[in-house]
Specification:
Elements: H1 2-11, H2 15-35, H3 41-56, H4 60-100, H5 108-115, H6 119-130, H7 134-152, H8 157-163, H9 169-180, H10 184-199
């Protein structure tokens, strides 16, 4: 914004052109808010007020101040909405995880691409919301589903591994043991022994 004023002063750019440049900057900000699903009627009304003010300003310094004030109010609004926005994105991610945990390629990077959000911001928001990292939550979901299938079906281990997002049965076995404390084979064996005891 300040560089526009400096260029205007040095090159004597027409005032109308400067207004259009400022207007384009403000429009880009509005589009950004729309993509982030940030809604605030008062803020959007102020956009029209600032645009009108720009055309009526006599000095470039007054135009610069009006636009800077607008951007500062945008920053305040972003900070206010930031935590709730992060929670919303995490909830969307958790819903996606519930139905796509079996996808081999599901990853933190892919999730962030789908949400159009930075990895660092999403990782922080996810940890704050769930107490786990994205990978920890995904592994927990996959192993819970695997335990469910092991308990209620007679499927092969490799079939369960594939349904739960693991294309390598050995890797699935090691993750299962690390998470549950026992291998899938031992887990199933103990379940069967428990069933026999209850039947007796």
């Amino acid at each position: 914004i300040r560089s526009i004023r400096e260029e205007y002063s040095e090159r004597w750019i027409a005032k109308t052109k400067v207004v259009i440049i400022y207007q384009n900057l403000m429009m880009a900000l509005m589009n950004c808010f729309e993509r982030l699903n940030i809604e605030d009627k008062e803020f959007f009304q102020r956009y029209q007020e600032v645009i009108s003010k720009l055309y009526n300003c006599e000095y470039i310094s007054d135009m610069e101040k009006a636009v800077l004030d607008y951007f500062l109010s945008a920053a305040e609004l972003m900070n206010k909405k930031r935590s709730s926005y992060g929670d919303q994105q995490v909830e969307i991610a958790l819903e996606y995880m519930d139905t796509h945990y079996g996808d081999y390629d599901l990853s933190l990077q892919l999730m962030c691409e789908k949400l159009a959000i930075s990895v660092s911001y999403f990782s922080t928001a996810f940890k704050n919301y769930t107490g786990m990292t994205f990978i920890e939550a995904l592994t927990k979901k996959r192993i819970e589903k695997a335990m469910e299938l092991l308990a209620n079906t007679s499927m092969k281990f490799y079939e369960i591994a594939e349904l739960c997002g693991y294309n390598d049965a050995n890797y699935f076995g090691s993750i299962f043991k690390k998470t549950v404390g026992k291998s899938p084979r031992v887990y199933v064996k103990e379940l069967k022994n428990d069933e026999k005891r209850t039947q007796v």
